[in-house]
Amino acid sequence: FALRTSAASTALVDKFPNAVFLQAPYFGQGSGIRPPGVGAFTGPAVHYADVLYRCGYDTAAHLESLVKRWRQIFERVNLAGVVGDASPTTVLAAAGRIPVVHIGSAFATPPAGKPFLHLSPSSRSGAKDREARVFDVIQQVSGSLGVPSLNSVSDLLGLAENFSCTLPELDPYRT
């Protein structure tokens, strides 16, 4: 198991006593990827690209570091497949190498190839520009690390088998 927090591994260690628990790469204070004092986009996250931007898709250097750290984990444990929970960077790191099943809430598993929905009509200002920046970062990393090329940010999760786990009333993509 590669988990972001030690609390998550504590909750699982009794259920899986022989499992190996590793620190999952993440973008945040104390991660070694996001330098102290460096801020990411701080406005409201109005669509999925905003979430990606906050999670290390703000610069090619940050995203490349995350992808490389995931690949180190994959090599260390010699995986046959990956099951990830709301883990788009794991999808990107495994793309074309290891099969991935990606699960998450409806917002965390937007349909591949479809435009991202905005949480409110008034939140669209600047969203296209932020999505374009995220796409540019993904393209830079894809080219340098041999990841399959994408046509849009929303194609990212198309590199995995996706399962949205949510109530229909909470699914912004239900239609």
The tally of helices reads: 5
Helix content, binned percent: 25-40%
Quaternary state of the chains: single chain
Low confidence ranges = none
Q: Name the shape in a single word.
A: globular
What does this structure look like?
With 175 residues, this protein is of the alpha/beta class. The protein is built from 5 helices and 5 strands. It has helices at residues 6-13, 48-54, 60-77, 88-94, 127-145; strands spanning 2-3, 22-23, 82-85, 100-104, 161-164. The strands form 2 sheets. It has a 3-stranded parallel sheet, with helices on one face. Strand 4 (100-104), helix 5 and strand 5 form a beta-alpha-beta unit. Helix 3 (60-77) crosses helix 4. The radius of gyration is 16 Å and the shape is globular.
Please render the helix and strand layout as text.
Layout: E1 2-3, H1 6-13, E2 22-23, H2 48-54, H3 60-77, E3 82-85, H4 88-94, E4 100-104, H5 127-145, E5 161-164
Parallel strand pairs: 1-2, 3-4, 4-5
What attributes characterize this protein structure?
single chain, 175 residues, alpha/beta, three-stranded parallel sheet, two-stranded parallel sheet, 5 helices, 5 strands, 34% helix, globular
